[in-house]
Design goal:
single chain; 57 residues; alpha+beta; Alpha-Beta Plaits; two-stranded antiparallel sheet; 2 helices
């Protein structure tokens, strides 16, 4: 998974962080979220939950 930094406003808590079942997404403050692809199981929940459609496989 990857985050398109041009689509992500990074000015609020990322809603995808809460839905990741393996906690592969982290965010410091209101910065750009980060996805740990070594932990990610590619379930796609973050893609469906991101209102800005900034996450892709």
């Amino acid at each position: 998974m990857k985050i398109n930094e041009h689509r992500c406003p990074a000015n609020h808590p990322c809603p995808a962080v809460r839905v990741c079942p393996v906690k592969a997404i982290s965010q410091k403050g209101f910065g750009l979220p980060s996805i740990n692809n070594d932990v990610c199981i590619n379930c796609g929940k973050c893609i469906k939950f991101c209102p800005m459609r900034a996450i892709s496989a």
